[in-house]
Design goal:
By secondary structure, the protein is an alpha+beta fold. It contains five helices and seven strands; from the N terminus they run βαααβββαβαββ. The protein has a seven-stranded mixed beta sheet. The structure holds coenzyme A.
Length: 167
């Protein structure tokens, strides 16, 4: 059975592993290999620890099967991109666990967290070329808001923003 819960600091190493593995698999062929292969687990872990240090306005939500973490999401209450809006900053399911309803479960948990904190709007940014994720967000009821170019330093990619106005 899949267990969904809020993460604690002890979960950071597994969150970093799930995030890195899923991120590499999802963006292979979309982002340059060099970019995907130079990101280290330690760097990822440091970023997550920094996010934890931001306090109660950011939460990691995890999905576990038995003792194994199979998916994770990072949700913030105050989006830097959109006023008065929560944001799901990341959502990653390990490749072999995708398409089993786990993404939908994490999505619902994120909505619950945002609602519980007095908000009913949320956005998500997704690479335009990540068509599988775009289909998933559309299935979750996301409405196209805008497209912008994300500058990754050595390359730029179009990113689609989906919004939910009445969660
Ligand atoms: C995108 C992602 C988060 C979806 O999570 P998931 O657990 O695989 O999706 P679910 O099983 O909950 O799917 C729910 C519904 O969304 C839609 N959907 C999900 N993945 C889809 C795909 N690849 N193609 C088309 N529709 C899809 C379907 O309607 C699906 O329902 P169904 O399986 O009954 O047809 C997951 O596949 C993932 O982690 N992908 C790689 C990383 C990524 O791209 N993350 C998003 C970054 S912004």
């Amino acid at each position: 059975m899949i267990n969904i819960r809020m993460a604690t600091l002890e979960d950071v190493p597994a969150i970093a592993e799930v995030g890195l593995e899923s991120w590499r698999a999802a963006y292979r062929g979309i982002m340059p290999d060099e970019h995907l292969d130079t990101m280290t687990l330690e760097e990822r872990q440091r970023r997550i620890e920094k996010a934890f240090a931001r306090g109660n306005t950011v939460k990691f939500i995890i999905a576990q099967q038995g003792g194994l973490m199979v998916g994770m999401s990072c949700v913030v209450l105050d989006s830097a991109k959109e006023a008065d809006c929560g944001e799901m900053e990341t959502l990653y399911i390990l490749p072999e666990w995708q398409r089993r309803g786990i993404g939908a479960k994490l999505f619902k948990a994120a909505v619950k967290y945002i609602n519980a904190n007095g908000k009913n709007k949320m956005i998500i940014s997704v690479l335009e070329a990540n068509t599988n994720a775009c289909k998933f967000y559309e299935r979750m009821g996301g409405v196209y808001l805008r497209t912008f170019d994300w500058d990754f330093g050595n390359f730029r990619l179009p990113v689609v923003v989906y919004c939910w106005d009445d969660l």
